[in-house]
C-alpha cells in the first residue's frame, strides 16, 4: 500500500495559501485543512465569553473545548478575529492542544494543509512543502478587494497596516514562528494571478513527487 501524501503550505497572511491549497487538494484528490480556522475558532470562543485572547488560561481552555461545529461558523474572518487568532496562536499550550487534530487529519488519506507552521512543526516530514508569499502591497490589495466584495471598506491603508502587524507578530513569536522551512520551495505570487499561481504550484508538486 502506498503512503498517503502530505502537502504543507505555509506563508504570510493573504498570500493566497488557502486559494492554492484548496485547488491543489482538488487536483491531487486529497482532503484539505485550513489550519488558520482552528486558531480563529479558538479566538471566537474566547471573545464570545468576554475573555482576553492574550490570556493563556482562557485561550487554552477554549482550545481544549473546540469542536468541529466551531469551524463552521460564518463569523471567523472578521478583522477582530484576525487579531485575536494571532494572539491565541502565540500561546504554546493552545498550539499543543491543536497539534493532534492537525496530524490526525492526514492519517487516513493524506492531506493538503495550509498555515504558518505546517512544514516546520506539524508535518516536518511532509512530502511537499511550499512557502507561498507575495509583497505586502499585493497582499493588502487582494485582501482589500475581498473586503470590498463583502461590502466592507476599511480602506487600503488600514488593511495593509493590519496585515503588516499580524505578520510581524506571527514571525517574531517564540512559539512556532512563521518561517520558511529549509526544504520548502518558495512561490512568490506577486506577479501571478490565481490560475498562474495554481499552475506553478502544481508543477512544483509534480516535480517533487516524481523525484520520489
Ligand atoms: N494569485 C492571486 N492573485 C490574485 N488574487 C489572489 C491570488 N491568490 C489568492 N487571491 C485572492 O486573495 C485573497 C486572499 O487569498 P487567500 O484567502 O487564499 O489567502 P490566505 O493566505 O489563505 O489568507 P489568510 O492567511 O488570511 O487565511 C482572496 O480574496 C483570494 O481570492
Ligand atoms: N498553522 C497556523 C495557522 C494559523 N495560525 C495563526 O492564526 C492566524 C489566522 O490564520 P489565517 O491563516 O486564517 O490567516 C494567523 O495570523 C496565525 O497567527 C498559526 O499560528 N498557525
Structure characterization notes:
- InterPro entries: Cytidylate_kin, Cytidylate_kinase_dom, P-loop_NTPase.
- This is Cytidylate kinase.
- GO terms for molecular function: ATP binding; CMP kinase activity; dCMP kinase activity.
- One of its GO terms (biological process) is pyrimidine nucleotide metabolic process.
- Its EC number is 2.7.4.25.
- This protein has one domain (6-199): 3-Layer(aba) Sandwich (Rossmann fold).
- Helix 2 packs across helix 4 (79-89).
- The longest helix has 18 residues, at 194-211.
- The radius of gyration is 17 Å and the shape is globular.
- It is α/β, with parallel strands linked by helices and 212 residues long.
- 42% of the residues are buried.
- It has nine helices and five strands, in the order E-H-E-H-H-H-H-E-H-E-H-H-E-H.
- Helix content is 53%, strand content 11%.
- Strands 2-3-1-4-5 form a five-stranded parallel beta sheet.
- It has helices at residues 17-27, 36-48, 56-64, 79-89, 92-105, 118-122, 136-149, 156-172, 194-211, and strands spanning 6-10, 32-34, 111-115, 128-133, 185-188.
- Bound molecules: adenosine-5'-triphosphate and the ligand Nc1ccn([C@@H]2O[C@H](COP(=O)(O)O)[C@@H](O)[C@H]2O)c(=O)n1.
